[in-house]
Amino acid sequence: MRDVAVVGFAQRQMEEFDGSPTCVEMLVPLFAECYEQTGWTRRDIGFWCSGSSDYLAGRSFSFVQAVDAIGVIPPVNESHVEMDAAWALYEAWVKIQTGEVDTALVYGFGKSSAGVLRRTLALQLDPYTMTPLWPDTVSLAGLQARAGIDAGLWDERAMAEVVNRSLTDAEKNDYAIRKGGSSVEELLARPMYADPLRKHDCAPVTDGAAAIVLAADDQARDVAERPAWITGISTYVDPISMGTRDLTRSPSTANAARGLDLDGLEVAELHAPFSHQELILRTELGLADDVAVNPSGGPLAGNPMFTGGLIRFGEAARKVWAGENTKVLGHATSGPALQQNLVCTMEGRS
Amino acid sequence: MAKQPAAVIGVGQTHHRAKREDVSMAGLCREAIDRAMADANVGFDDIDAIVVGKAPDLFEGVMMPELFLADSLGAAGKPLIRVHTAGSVGGSTAIVASSLVQAGVHKRVLTVAFEKQSESNAMWALSVPVPFNMPVHAGAGGYFAPHVRSYIRRSGAPTHVGAIVAAKDRQNALKNPYAHLKNKDTTVETVLASQMLWDPIRYDETCPSSDGACALVIADEDTAKASPNPAWIHGTVMRSEATTAAERDQVNPQASRDAAAAIYKQAGITNPIEEIDAAEIYVPFSWFEPMWLESLGFAAEGDGWKLTESGATALDGTMPVNMSGGVLSSNPIGASGMLRFAEAALQVRGAAGEHQVDGARRALGHAYGGGSQFFSMWIVGSEQPVS
Amino acid sequence: MTRTLSAPVTVAFDYTRSTGPVLGRFLTGLRDGVVIGGRTSEGTVVVPPPEFDPVTHEAVTDFVEVASTGTVTSWSWVSEPVKHQPLDRPFAFALVTLDGADTPLLHALDVASADEVSTGMRVQIRWAEERVGAITDIQCFEPEQGGRAASEASDQSRPRDEEAVTGVITPVELDYLYAASPEESAFYRGLAEGRILGQCCPTCQKVYVPPRSACPSDGTPTNEEIELPDKGTVTTFCIVNVPFMGQKITPPYVSAYVLLDGADIAFLHLILDIPAEEVRMGMRVEAVWKPREEWSTTIENISHFRPTGEPDADYDTYKQHL
Questions:
Q1: Residue to test with chain B: of A65, A81, A82, most B Cβ within 10 A
Q2: Using a CB-CB distance cutoff of 8 angstroms, which residues of chain C are in contact with residue B199?
Q3: pTM of the full predicted structure?
Q4: In chain A, which ranges are E strands?
Q5: Please, are residues A180 and A63 in contact by the beta-carbon 8 Å criterion?
Q6: What is the model's pLDDT at position C162?
Q7: pLDDT tens-digit profile of C158-172?
Q8: Which of B257, B213, B254, B266 is nearest to B98 (CA)?
Q9: DSSP string across A96-109
Q10: Are A25 and C214 an interchain contact pair (Cβ–Cβ within 8 Å)?
Q11: C-beta atoms of A20 and C75 within 8 A
Q12: Contact check, Cβ <8 Å, B149/C238
């Protein structure tokens, strides 16, 4: 495998983006930040890949106009996944591994606030036996949280601890849209929203976009003092059915982690849009107690759809660039109740 | 660093129809997958990863349908990727699947692309009005018709050339057991007599709306060498440009020309009409055959229609194009690009049945999408490329 | 004034789904007032039946009738129901393992408050009054009422001599608030004043109308505002003869690319006041505005374009816009 590193990252998160669902105007300054970080222009990028969703935007081919933000004369080597942009990063990493290109810029965007997000996401379910009931995402997560509580695997206190730590850490994150820790007791005193979930157990509806730059070998060394080298990346999916899988587990996360070396891991940015999901992921990844989870505040502080996973990779990589950490992990999820997962380890080399 | 060798060892597709009311979405996909796996002589346990492609989710009203399909596609417990690059998606999906093998990440990848258009109405899904805009949009035909008019003006082509393409492709479809349209009486005259839908495009010059799927098994060098007739991948390319831009050439887009130049370089081709034995090109409206012949370098600019008119692109011509009957005869949009790539593979494997081009050794598969702005292509060959 | 203009958009379609044999068997059962599960190769009875066996990947063919009573295995409270959920008042979504099944089914559970739900509680199906062969034939679950539940369900079942269900219609209706970009918003606001405002790309100097958040050639936002005349040239066009669902203009009509004088990109509009077959590439046209009192922030303020009567533009003057 070629050595490939994350060498650029930019993001935007907001409660309500007032611009168009194509998000072009949000992407332009993000790309500019990436060029500034690398010293490159668009012509130095070998491959572009994005992640977004037509149903989030409410129209077919919603990603088509996003390429305008690149400036596509001359035309570009480009692809798109109808997934979180973390999978666009995976496609780009594969493309670099083929040797066809040495650099890539991946991006994602989504205006979750254009519709009623938890309702829109009911369209991700089995269209014959589930979607006609419009099971919203929050309810499905609630079923999962309850399963773990009933099984004695976690409790509301453990969930509140995740929230308190996340919102406390989020105070240091300028992009976070929900922040400010209090105490586990205070959180537990707040009313139920989707029993057993309180509002703060659920990621806030977030609009946003993000971009990450990948580079191979010397290209990475040339532009970054301390690139975040990808040492392993892997993705798996589970069946969608809420009935046939053990909701307290995430086999696809465990599968993805199986081939990765997690010894000495210092930081894990986990894409857990619901507090209990962080607890599932920690178990499936076998994280040691001293691993710092979501020091950015994580998805509970802001979770732009189709970007929330990619942002985890960027936040983890930044720790390496800054020299604060040497071995980090980024994780992305997709589908209801942690159905599909992607795990990536990155390392700094002094 | 060179790409790892990769080849198509299994091809499968559904019987394409206006409405496949006998199957669910999963059943449709499995019909293609099961045929591809049988052709490749592999089972689900042999598959390392699955790549799914489909055009807009509004067509079936399911957001990211690969998630609910995961179990039925045999993807549960495996890596799964979903590609969407508009009409070119079937081709792009095959390319993403190939890249997983060419990168050395996986040994055997199953890829499937589908569209079950009868679940909704494509004209509706593509023409949901945008507020503040002029509601003149009229589906894909309405989009492409003005650019066809531009081509006719620019090239001076006689107006019956589109009908020649339509009649040829419909006749080719009669030789393809999977094709949707089977109109044995279609001739240049009947096409010209059909209703003008989006002037200058007539009814018989347009693609149908189909339910269908296509699947491929793509394998690494060792697996391919053990296969009786692999289609080796000699080159893949994707290029994109904007839908609309000042002075953008919408008849012969730069992204198309750039893509062709790049793939010929990869495959070591300097004279495509001599070195490519068969081409399966994305032609949803008949006039796009001469347009793409020029863009792809099979004819000089302005001369594509002459190649078509000469009969060269017929199944028994010197440069056969759309042997399967093409998009004009079967169009499950999300799968249409992969069907082109699949036909190219069938040709070089000598497995195209009645629509086989004798001795085809190198073939081009081509797809495009959006407003003629996304292009994906591959060249496959019966021989392993010399690296 | 808000930075951008926005307007509601509803994306709605009644999808016509064909079910295939397995889902068809399940939905036929629901229509007839019984729940059908599928037995997998490992002997598990799964409801709804999976289309393909998770281990052998073969189509599931072994069907088992299960009871309409069962046990809640997990639940969550829906305090704020969203449109089209089974109940429009607070309710629970529950996973219910029906008696005779090994895995639970997801559906709504009708109880007055979260205090009345618990994992392990016994529930029964409340069938919809009219059943058509859809998951909504189960209106919801409700707490089990003594031993009468099973017989009640079978009382409601219909003679099973009707044809099997092979299709189901699933309405999908989503409401969005669509916003225009800031650049487009300026353009639409200009139209509300009868002005056509383009912008120039600072990198390539091309004049875009409408202006763009990113010049597609350079990736830089267009900025310098340029007011354009409402007169231009038809570069190319098509005559739309085909009617389709959702269409706003009655065919036949001419949809044309109009290149306004001074602009570097054409935009699509309607050509009228001339027989469709007489519209030409290069034809000179001018905007016909609706009465001022009908104007709002939309390009529909221009009713259509009509011929100016000037000589056609020379092909060389617009050929680079094709």
A1: A82
A2: 238-239, 241, 276
A3: 0.97
A4: 4-14, 47-51, 78-81, 103-111, 205-216, 228-237, 267-269, 292-293, 303-304, 327-334, 340-347
A5: no
A6: 80
A7: 556 689 999 999 999
A8: B266
A9: HHTTS-SEEEEEEE
A10: yes
A11: no
A12: yes
CATH of A123-202+229-347, one of 3.10.20.30, 3.60.15.10, 3.40.47.10, 3.40.190.10: 3.40.47.10
Mutate: best of C213, C215, C223, C264, partner A, most A CBs <10 A: C213
B41 vs B53: CA distance, rounded Å:
23
Distance CA C228, CA C153 (A): 71
Instruction: Map out the domains of chain A as residue ranges.
Output: 4-116+205-228, 123-202+229-347
- Looking at 3.40.47.10, 3.90.660.20, 1.20.120.790, 3.30.2310.20, the CATH number of the domain A4-116+205-228 comes to 3.40.47.10
Mean pLDDT of C185-207: 97
Q: Which residues of A229-242 are buried (b: 16+ CB within 10 A; e: fewer)?
A: bbbbbbbbbbbbbb
How far apart CA A131 and CA A112 sit, in angstroms, is: 19
Number of domains chain B is built from? 1
Q: Is the complex ipTM more than 0.95?
A: yes
pLDDT tens-digit series, residues A276-297: 999 999 999 999 999 999 999 9
Q: Is residue B25 part of a domain?
A: yes
Q: Which amino acid is at B78?
A: K
Q: Strands A205-216 and A327-334, how do they pair?
A: unpaired
Can you give the pLDDT at residue C156? 54
Asked whether residue B305 is domain-assigned, the answer is no
Answer whether residue B358 is part of any domain.
Answer: no
CA angle C159, C165, C170 (to 5 degrees): 125
The reported pLDDT for the residue numbered B135 is: 76
Domain containing B66 equals 6-121+209-225
pLDDT, tens only, A17-68: 999 999 999 999 999 999 999 999 999 999 999 999 999 998 888 889 999 9
Q: Distance, in angstroms, between B105 CA and closest chain A CA?
A: 8
A303, A294 in Cβ contact below 8 A? no
User: Around Cβ C225, how many Cβ atoms within 10 Å?
Assistant: 15
Q: Which stretches of chain B drop beneath a pLDDT of 70?
A: 1, 387
Q: Mutating which of C26, C57, C199 best tests the B interface, going by the most B Cβ atoms within 10 A?
A: C57
Of A21, A139, A241, the CB nearest to C93: A139
Nearest residue in A to B101, CA atom: A98
**Residue C86 scores a pLDDT above 90:** yes
Residue B89, domain CATH: 3.40.47.10
* pLDDT score at C304: 96
Residue B69 placed within a domain: yes
How many Cβ atoms from other residues are within 10 Å of residue B362's Cβ? 23
Kind plus residue range of the DSSP H or E element containing C139 = strand C138-143
Closest-CA residue of chain C to A72: C217
Contact assessment for residue C225 and residue B103, using Cβ atoms and an 8 Å cutoff: no
Looking only at the bridges linking them, the beta strands covering C224-228 and C196-200 are antiparallel
Residue A190, number of CB atoms within 10 A of its CB:
14
Structure tokens at C75: 């639940």
pLDDT digits (tens, 9 = 90+) for C214-242: 999 999 999 999 999 999 999 999 999 88
- Average pLDDT of A124-145? 98
At C262, which amino acid appears? G
Tokens of A256: 């993805």
Give the N- to C-terminal CA distance of chain A in Å, as an integer: 20
Distances (CA, A) of C91 to A195, C82, C109, C112: 11, 11, 6, 7
Residue C151: is its pLDDT beyond 50? no
Annotated domain spans of chain C: 6-173, 181-321
Touching subunits for chain A (3+ Cβ pairs under 8 A)? B, C
Task: Give the tens place of pLDDT for each residue, B311-326.
Answer: 999 999 999 999 999 9
